[in-house]
C-alpha cells in the first residue's frame, strides 16, 4: 500500500469528512496564464506534442504546485484524447481550437469506431499519470479526468467547436437512436479510460461536461446525465485500499440538475458561478460534496476584491465540511498569476473560520 499523503484535505473534503480548512485547486491550473507553461509548450512544439509526451505533461502538471500551496494536482491532458485515440484526426489550430478531420455523423461512421485499449492507444496518458505520481512524492493527491460523452460527442459530430451544436442536435432530435449508439460507445471508452487512470495512480477522477448546459432539461437528463451516471457506476471506487472519489461537473445547470447529479452515486458535484452555493447545498441535500464556484473573471480584479469575493463564496457554502474551493470554470489564459495566488491565499486565510469544531 502506498505511503499516506502529506496533504489529504482534498480527498477528505470530497468524502465530506472534517477538515481544518477548505481545500483549493483551480480548473486549468496548469495552463497558458503561467509563463513557465508557455515555455514548456514552446519546447514541445504544439499542444498535442505537450499532451502526448509524458515528461512534458508531468512538468506542466507540477508547475502550479511550485507557485501556489494547492491541495491537488490535476493531470495535464485534454478532454479530446479519446477522439484522438479513435483515429478521428484531431488537430489544434492556433486561434481556431480543436478540429477533427473525420467527424462521426452516420450509422456507418459510428459502427466503424474501434474499441479502445487505454494502455495501448492512450499509453502516453497512463505513463504521465505514473510519472506524476512518482514526482509528487505523496505531497498532494492527483486528479484524473475525462470529458463527458455528450461533451466529447459534440466535437466528434460537429468536427470541432460549435456555437449552436446544429449537427449533433439535429441527430438528437432527428435520429436519437444513432446518437445513443454513439454515446454508448463513448461512455464505455470513458469508463475504461478513467479506470486505467485510476490503476495508473489517479486518486480522484472528474468528468467535465462542458456543454451539458446547452441542452433542455429533458434532453440533458437523457443524453448527458444518464451517461455520466453510467460512468459513475462503472468506475473503480477503491484502489490501493483507498476510496477513489468521483466528481461530476456540468457547466450551466442549476438546482434541479444538481439534484440529479447528486443522485448518480458521485461523491461530489461541481458548481459554476451562476448558482449560489447555498442554493446548491440545499439542492443536493447533503448527498455529495460541492466544488466551486468563484467566477473566473474575479481574478482580473485587484487582490483586495479577490479576497472579498473568496469570502463571499465561503460564506455562501457556510459552516461545515464537504466544500472544495475552485473556480466556476477554468482560469482565463490572460489572468495575472499573482491574482491566482491571491485567491489561494485568501482561501487559506478565511476558510478555517468555517471549520471550527472539525
Describe the overall structure.
The protein is of the alpha/beta class and 358 residues long. The chain has one domain: TIM Barrel (Alpha-Beta Barrel), CATH 3.20.20.210. Helix content is 48%, strand content 13%. A seven-stranded parallel beta sheet has the order 1-4-5-8-9-10-11. A two-stranded antiparallel ribbon has the order 2-3. Helix 2 packs antiparallel against helix 4 (54-67), helix 9 packs across helix 11 (176-200) and helix 10 (166-174) crosses helix 11 (176-200). The radius of gyration is 19 Å and the shape is globular. The model has no long low-confidence stretch (mean pLDDT 96).
Quick recap:
With about 350 residues, the chain is an alpha/beta fold. The chain has helices at about 10-15, 35-45, 45-50, 55-65, 80-85, 105-110, 120, 125-135, 150-160, 165-175, 175-200, 215-235, 255-260, 275-285, 305-315, 335-350; strands spanning about 75, 90-95, 95-100, 140-145, 205-210, 240, 240-245, 245-250, 270, 290-295, 325.
What topology does this entry show?
Blueprint: H1 9-14, H2 35-44, H3 47-51, H4 54-67, E1 73-74, H5 81-85, E2 90-93, E3 97-100, H6 107-112, H7 118-121, H8 123-136, E4 142-147, H9 149-158, H10 166-174, H11 176-200, E5 204-209, H12 217-234, E6 238-239, E7 242-243, E8 246-250, H13 255-262, E9 268-270, H14 277-284, E10 289-294, H15 303-317, E11 323-327, H16 337-350
Parallel strand pairs: 1-4, 4-5, 5-8, 8-9, 9-10, 10-11
Antiparallel strand pairs: 2-3, 6-7
Helix pairs in contact: 2-4, 4-8, 9-11, 10-11, 11-12, 13-14, 15-16
Amino acid at each position: 500500500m502506498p505511503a499516506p499523503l502529506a496533504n489529504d484535505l482534498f480527498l477528505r473534503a470530497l468524502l465530506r469528512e472534517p477538515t481544518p480548512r477548505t481545500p483549493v485547486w483551480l480548473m486549468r491550473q496548469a495552463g497558458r496564464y503561467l509563463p513557465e507553461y508557455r515555455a514548456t509548450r514552446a519546447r514541445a512544439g504544439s499542444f498535442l506534442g505537450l499532451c502526448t509526451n509524458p515528461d512534458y505533461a508531468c512538468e506542466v502538471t507540477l508547475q502550479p504546485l511550485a507557485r501556489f500551496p494547492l491541495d491537488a494536482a490535476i493531470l495535464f491532458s485534454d478532454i479530446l484524447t479519446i477522439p484522438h485515440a479513435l483515429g478521428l484526426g484531431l488537430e489544434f489550430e492556433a486561434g481556431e481550437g480543436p478540429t477533427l478531420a473525420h467527424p462521426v455523423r452516420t450509422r456507418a461512421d459510428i459502427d466503424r469506431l474501434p474499441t479502445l485499449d487505454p494502455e495501448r492507444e492512450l499509453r502516453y496518458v497512463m505513463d504521465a499519470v505514473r510519472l506524476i505520481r512518482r514526482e509528487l512524492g505523496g505531497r498532494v493527491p492527483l486528479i484524473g479526468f475525462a470529458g463527458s460523452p455528450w461533451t466529447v460527442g459534440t466535437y466528434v459530430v460537429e468536427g470541432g467547436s460549435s456555437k449552436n451544436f446544429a449537427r449533433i442536435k439535429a441527430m438528437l432530435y432527428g435520429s436519437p437512436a444513432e446518437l445513443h449508439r454513439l454515446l454508448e460507445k463513448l461512455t464505455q471508452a470513458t469508463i475504461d479510460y478513467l479506470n486505467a487512470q485510476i490503476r495508473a495512480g489517479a486518486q480522484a477522477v472528474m468528468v467535465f461536461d462542458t456543454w451539458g448546459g446547452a441542452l433542455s432539461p429533458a434532453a440533458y437528463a437523457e443524453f448527458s446525465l444518464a451517461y455520466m451516471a453510467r460512468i459513475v457506476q462503472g468506475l473503480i471506487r477503491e484502489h490501493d485500499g483507498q476510496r477513489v472519489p468521483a466528481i461530476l461537473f456540468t457547466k450551466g445547470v442549476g438546482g434541479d440538475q444538481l439534484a440529479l447529479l447528486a443522485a448518480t452515486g458521485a461523491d461530489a458535484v461541481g458548481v459554476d458561478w451562476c448558482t449560489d452555493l447555498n442554493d446548491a447545498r440545499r439542492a443536493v441535500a447533503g448527498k455529495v460534496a460541492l466544488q466551486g464556484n468563484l467566477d473566473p473573471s474575479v481574478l482580473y480584479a485587484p487582490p483586495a476584491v479577490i479576497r472579498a469575493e473568496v469570502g463571499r463564496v465561503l460564506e455562501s457554502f457556510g459552516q461545515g465540511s464537504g466544500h472544495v474551493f475552485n473556480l466556476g470554470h477554468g482560469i482565463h489564459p490572460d489572468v495575472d498569476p499573482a491574482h491566482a495566488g491571491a485567491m489561494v491565499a485568501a482561501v487559506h486565510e478565511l476558510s478555517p473560520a468555517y471549520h471550527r469544531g472539525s
